[in-house]
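Preliminary data (for renewal application), BIS(adenosine)-5'-pentaphosphate complex.
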Amino acid sequence: MKLILLGPPGAGKGTQAEILSKRLGIDTISTGVMLRAAIREGTELGKLAETYINDGKLVPDEVVVGIVKERLQQEDCKKGFILDGFPRTTAQAEALTATGVEIDKVLSLEVADEKIVERLSGRRECKACGTPYHVVFKPSSKGDVCDACGGELIQRADDNEETVRNRICVYHEQTEPIKEYYEKTGKLVIAYGQEELEDTTKAVSKALGLE
Ligand code: AP5
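Predicted structure:
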């Protein structure tokens, strides 16, 4: 399965990608995770990305397309992958098509804007491995450390309310038009995010025909 997950910030793309990755035995390629790793490592890419991410803006297309193309050439991608957070503009979608990589399905995970701020204010992630949590909806069983690796749970720098609102605007202006791009290819499927994580997981499975 070569899958794209689309959706607004906080829709649950990362959470569902983690579940699908385990279920299907394929890796998730998350541009957000890759860019935040570069920021933590203090690389040139990280320094550049930080200025955009902390304002809730998109990192320039040519930068993101470059890192995704390189990742897709790795051996493990041959058996499938889940793209989380890429493509995010029509130019990125066109660049992906131009690589010749055949995508099987594009899942748009839909959540209303007003739910997003509530979700993102409670989100935490592991500083060491990036596993996502929510203080109410998906708490770690170990309190404020990661279930998977014992790392410290932190709040992302771009999860403050002002930046979240900017990210929502950017999504509607620059990312949502991609749905039309993929609708024309017949690969777009839609799932609606639910209050309970398990219900969203069921909706995602159904939309992807995995039930
Ligand atoms: P990125 O990391 O991709 O962030 P995003 O798309 O804004 O999405 P999020 O990670 O915030 O949310 P999510 O949908 O994964 O939700 P999650 O599962 O965590 O990108 C960050 C930044 O990097 C961008 O703003 C941009 O600057 C840059 N960037 C990245 N890719 C780029 C690209 N291609 N081009 C240019 N720039 C790029 O869930 C959210 C919370 O809700 C969690 O706490 C979760 O536990 C909880 N939750 C999930 N599902 C449910 C549910 N059903 N009910 C209740 N709570 C739930």
